[in-house]
């Protein structure tokens, strides 16, 4: 399954890898397929500003949440 197929209708997304195919996801487009824009970045792989600007609640393991 693709990331989009796996996340369709999800209330939260867990990112547990730093693979490029996931790091390069478009947060705006990805936000259209989930039920709630919540993501836990377990590898600190995502651009936090891009995701929060796109309306996501972004949390990363080992990072302070502002």
From TrEMBL:
One of its GO terms (molecular function) is NAD binding. Signal peptide: none annotated. Transmembrane segments: none annotated. It comes from the Bacteria. Residues 2-48 form the UDP-glucose/GDP-mannose dehydrogenase C-terminal domain. InterPro entries: UDP-Glc/GDP-Man_DH_C, UDP-Glc/GDP-Man_DH_C_sf. This is UDPglucose 6-dehydrogenase. It comes from Geodermatophilus sabuli.
